[in-house]
Each structure stands twice: as structure tokens, then as C-alpha cells.
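Exercise 7. Given the encoded structure of a 287-residue chain, write a plausible sequence.
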């Protein structure tokens, strides 16, 4: 697994390295400010870190400060069978692709998986998920465009219970005619999941497009207000120089980043490790 985060942050690190003269033992607060801004960490967080720094900072000091930003974000652990996950996010964020990646991961762990195509707003979304189901050889519950997405979620969970399946992954729409329609629909899906199985959905995962940097924060706040979010997956880190936004996202939302997406293939999903992530950014200026 090691090295994947490095690959994901390649552009971010290159960007920083261009603006840094040479690698060093100590850095000044000004250099660190520049480092964090280049990495696209939100300015108020940069300010908070830089304010408290002495005039000479070594790698370990800064590492501890940065890791602290990820601290209040422990992942929620629940044991349930089936384990039901609702996948949220705006159109194009990478929901459907990430469902395929998660299904692949769970299958590799020897678990059984079923998909629910509850993004019934667009026919293309149902087709896309059905193609993944076929390629991954996992069952799927899908209806026609325009059908009730809650019914799809309900049927998927019931089928998982009947067939003794370990994981349920439910796709959702990222956009409806209005924002309040979307909020109502998502709330209803959550209620109906709980009807199909008490306590479901066990995790509501928000998919955020990493190329959008800090603007993903307002999206995350909106989804969190609608139905509550338990964890985040940041996609497309292979194509961005904005990797530092992960610090802002995790810190602002007080939510754990569980995985990052580093490509379009099913294997391109990596567990997120704050330690490795911070080291990769620090490698750009410190020896
Ligand atoms: P959805 O609308 O949220 O369901 O988004 P999709 O899953 O359809 O993804 C939108 C586009 O982003 C597709 O072309 C995906 O192949 C692409 N995509 C998703 N995740 C990643 C990733 O981690 N890296 C890259 N490079 N592309 C991704
Ligand atoms: Mg989709």
C-alpha cells in the first residue's frame, strides 16, 4: 500500500518543490506558510498553524502539528450483516466508480456484495452501475429511470438479508430538480433503509472530487446538513495539485477520510493514512 499516497500527491509535491530552493533540516514559519498554501490548505488553517510556530521548525514539530489536524476524526466502527453503506455526493464526484472500487475491495476480502442502483434520476447512472455489477460479477437491484429510489434501497437490503450477503452499497442521485428535492429524497432513503433493517444505513459515505480542492468543503457541509455524513472518500487525487485540501476537509468537517481514489480502475482506491499523507507533503521541503 505504501507509495500510493505518494502517487496520489505527486502533482501537489511537484508544485511545492518548484517553489522551494532545497531540502532542509529546519524551515522558517514563512517557508512553511508557503508550503501549506502551495498544497492548497485553507488559509485560516495555515494561519493557525504558522502563528504558533517558533522561528526555526524541524520536521517532527511540523508533522505533529499537521497530524493533530486529523485527530478529531476517528472512524465509526459497526458490526452488522449486511453492512449497509449509502453513497452520497454531487454528480461527477465519482460515486458510481467508487462503489465499483469498494465492491472490488470487499470481494477481495472474501465478502459478498450487492449493489442498489438508487440513482434513478438518470438512466445512464443505472446503466453505468449495472455494467460494473456485470464486470465485477456481483448482484444488483435496479429499476427503470424515474422509479422510487427508496424502493430500490429497500429491495436491495431485503435481498441482502434473504441471501445472507455481507455488504450493501447503495448509489444515490447527486442532483435533482432542486436542492430541497434532493434533501427530501435522501432523507426518505435513509428512513426506508432503517425500515428494511433497523440501524441501516450503517455508514453514509460522502464522495468528494479532489480536483475541486477546498470548494468541496461547502458541498460536504450541505450533505452533512441533509442527512449526516459518517466518512469521506476523496476521488481523483491522481489528477490534482490540490492534495492539501484533505487537511482542510478533514479538519473543517471533523470527519474521517477513509479512502482516496487515485485513478479510474477498480484497484485505484487506497485506505487513507494521515501519517503517510503528512510525510509525503513534508518530503517536499524537509530532508
Ligand atoms: P458520479 O456521477 O458521482 O457517479 O461519478 P462517476 O463515478 O460517474 O465518475 C465521474 C468520472 O470521474 C468518471 O469518468 C470516472 O471514471 C472518474 N473518476 C472517478 N473516480 C476517479 C479517480 O479517483 N481518479 C480519476 N482520474 N477519475 C475518477
Ligand atoms: Mg453515478
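Solution.
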Amino acid at each position: 500500500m505504501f507509495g500510493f499516497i505518494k502517487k496520489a500527491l505527486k502533482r501537489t509535491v511537484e508544485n511545492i518543490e518548484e517553489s522551494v530552493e532545497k531540502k532542509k533540516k529546519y524551515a522558517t514559519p514563512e517557508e512553511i506558510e508557503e508550503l501549506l498554501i502551495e498544497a492548497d490548505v485553507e488559509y485560516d488553517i495555515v494561519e493557525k498553524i504558522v502563528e504558533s510556530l517558533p522561528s526555526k521548525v524541524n520536521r517532527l514539530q511540523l508533522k505533529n502539528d499537521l497530524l493533530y489536524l486529523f485527530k478529531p476524526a476517528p472512524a465509526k466502527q459497526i458490526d452488522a450483516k449486511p453492512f449497509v453503506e449509502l453513497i452520497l455526493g454531487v454528480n461527477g464526484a465519482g460515486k458510481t466508480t467508487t462503489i465499483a472500487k469498494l465492491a472490488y475491495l470487499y470481494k477481495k476480502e472474501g465478502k459478498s456484495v450487492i449493489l442498489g442502483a438508487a440513482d434513478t434520476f438518470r438512466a445512464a447512472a443505472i446503466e453505468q452501475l449495472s455494467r460494473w455489477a456485470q464486470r465485477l460479477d456481483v448482484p444488483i437491484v435496479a429499476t427503470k429511470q424515474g422509479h422510487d429510489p427508496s424502493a430500490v434501497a429497500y429491495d436491495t437490503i431485503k435481498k441482502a438479508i434473504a441471501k445472507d450477503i455481507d455488504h450493501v452499497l447503495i448509489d444515490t442521485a447527486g442532483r435533482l430538480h432542486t436542492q430541497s428535492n434532493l434533501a427530501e429524497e435522501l432523507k426518505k432513503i435513509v428512513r426506508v433503509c432503517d425500515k428494511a433493517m433497523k440501524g441501516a444505513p450503517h455508514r453514509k459515505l460522502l464522495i468528494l472530487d479532489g480536483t475541486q480542492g477546498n470548494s468541496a468543503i461547502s458541498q460536504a457541509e450541505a450533505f452533512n446538513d441533509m442527512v449526516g455524513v459518517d466518512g469521506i472518500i476523496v476521488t481523483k487525487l491522481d489528477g490534482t495539485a490540490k492534495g492539501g485540501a484533505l487537511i482542510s476537509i478533514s479538519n473543517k468537517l471533523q470527519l474521517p477520510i477513509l479512502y482516496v481514489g487515485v485513478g479510474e480502475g477498480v484497484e485505484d482506491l487506497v485506505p487513507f493514512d494521515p501519517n503517510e499523507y503528512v510525510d509525503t507533503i513534508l518530503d517536499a521541503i524537509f530532508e
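Remark. Residues 118 and 149 are 4 Å apart (CA to CA). Students should compare their own answers with the one above.
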